[in-house]
Amino acid sequence: MELATIRRAVLDDYTLESPTATVLNRRIAAAVREYSRYNPRVLDTTFETVADQAAYELDVDVPVNGICAVLYYANGLYYTVTDDIVYQLRLDTPYALVSQRVIEDTKEAAHVRGVLGDWEWRAGTKEIVLYPTPETSGDTIYVTYYTPHALNEEEDGYDTIPPEDQDIIVDLTLAELLTRHTVEAAASPDQAEGLERVTYHYNVANIDLAIARLRSGLIGKYGGTAIYVGP
Question: pLDDT-derived band of residue 230, with 50, 70 and 90 as boundaries?
Fold first, then answer.
């Protein structure tokens, strides 16, 4: 998706004072960041375990919005636990009390977590914490993570955003440009002839309504919530 094409489309629809090239580029970048929360790039990486080390910094050269999946075979064991197997285990085990079933389910969950391996993403320190702590070195951990879309090396476009989403990026950029007018509108009275009093709230409400409409295309296509950051 060419950056110049986005700029032209935005300026075609933006009838207020034209923003400078620097401001427009910043607003497009903000729109892309918002888009990336709903439809991020999905990349893969790997790292190797170190014996008795649980926490590992994710060493990648792009920002990490969150973790999609971590494939970790604890202690070199490969198991698959299906819902059918778990359900059959419950059928084969008599319970005198409902509370006993809850206790056994809790124990079972802890056992599966210990055998198959589990992980935790700590966004503050950009670390993946493995459970249980690896006992050996050199085991490969496979990570799938989310990252924002970014300008290509030539800085003339966003190659990883589908061309069919150009209208979404344009609308999000227009929403970003309109946001700056809400503060100005809050201090400016609505103008109408024949009124005995001056009101101040309709301008802001109208701008907010336009911003919500411009953002609705992104939400309508990629869901009502952004990505969940963490496991």
Answer: very low
DSSP string covering 71-112, please? E--GGG------HHHHHHHHHHS--SSHHHHHHHHHHHHHHH
Higher local confidence (pLDDT), 65 or 32:
32
Nearest to 7 by CA among 169, 164, 176: 169
Residue 162 main-chain phi, psi, to 5 deg: -60, 140
**Contact call for residues 73 and 139 (beta carbons, < 8 A):** yes
The angle, 0 to 180 degrees and rounded to 10, between the axes of the packed helices 21-38 and 166-186 is 120
226: number of CA atoms within 13 Å, CB side? Answer: 14
pTM above 0.85, yes or no: no
Contact between 129 and 57 (Cβ < 8 Å): no
